[in-house]
Amino acid sequence: MTVLILGATGLVGAKCVQHSLADTRIDRVIAVTRRPMDTSHPKLTNLIVDYEHLEDYADGMRADAVLSALGTTLKQAGSPSKFRRVDYDYQLRAAEIARKNGTKTFVLLSSGGADAKSVLLYTKVKGQIEAAITKLGFDRLAILRPSLLLGERQGHRPAEAMATWVSDRLSFVFTGALKRFKPIEGDIVAQAMINAVQKPYTGVRLVENLEIFTWAKS
After folding, report:
1. How many other β-carbons are positioned within 10 Å of the β-carbon of residue 162?
2. CATH fold label, 2-147+185-217
3. Using one digit for the tens of pLDDT, what is the confidence trace for 53-104?
4. 20 to 30 A from 214, CA-CA: which of 95, 108, 186, 192?
């Protein structure tokens, strides 16, 4: 099996690469990045691309399954239009190429609260990309909607720093109705994404935050 990973240098994407390389079910890993990776491995192919011209790299994007952890923040992007360019345009173009190349399984990292009709830019765009990729008709599409992600990543993100503090010291808060908002480690999300490639389902599966913990174990 060949797995292609988008967003391979981010918090979840980097963990997807790490786990995929160690997974005996996976024979080849194609990591799509803008810049060369520091990682080397016999199973790893680092496909360096210009996302503005992604179609130029279509021949190198042939895989049985795609794991998309591509994304940014409004602060990193610099404007709403640039944020949408990464989280919507780039991901949709990659998904279209994968579908045309015959990829059967697509695993999308979305977000809790994703809603195409949301008044919030982040959750609105996440909902819109979910809908757009669903329309492409992959045999199997798993959409993961984690709560706040925990783990080491580049740049300071106050909301995630607060989530880490709360998770470490006030874990008892996330019980009852609040349990579904429990922050989740990026490493757990990555393992769930890899397992999603192997799970026996067809069509579209929405995997909410609590179910991600379960998928990571099976």
Report:
1. 12
2. Rossmann fold (3.40.50)
3. 999 999 999 999 999 999 999 999 999 999 999 999 999 999 999 999 999 9
4. 95
- Sign of CA pseudo-dihedral 200, 150, 110, 28: negative
Phi and psi at residue 12, in whole multiples of 5°?
Answer: -80, -40
The strand pairing partners of 31, in sequence order, are: 5, 46
Active-site entry in 51, 57, 88, 122: 122
The conformation of residue 8, written as its DSSP 8-state character, comes to: T
Catalytic annotation on 122? yes
Instruction: List the beta strands (DSSP E) in the chain.
Output: 2-6, 28-33, 44-48, 65-68, 105-109, 140-145, 149-150, 184-185, 203-208
Tokens representing residue 184 in the block:
């989740």
- Tell me what pLDDT residue 138 has: 98
State the residue for tokens 């602060």. Answer: 75
Cβ distance 141 to 106 under 8 Å? Answer: yes
- CB atoms < 10 A from the CB of 164, how many? 18
Distance between CA atoms of residues 39 and 10, nearest Å: 14
**Beta-bridge partner residues of 33:** 48
Q: Which of 104, 126, 179, 201 is catalytic?
A: 126
Average pLDDT of the segment spanning 179-183: 74
Mean pLDDT score, 175-181: 61
Domain boundaries of the chain, sorted by first residue: 2-147+185-217
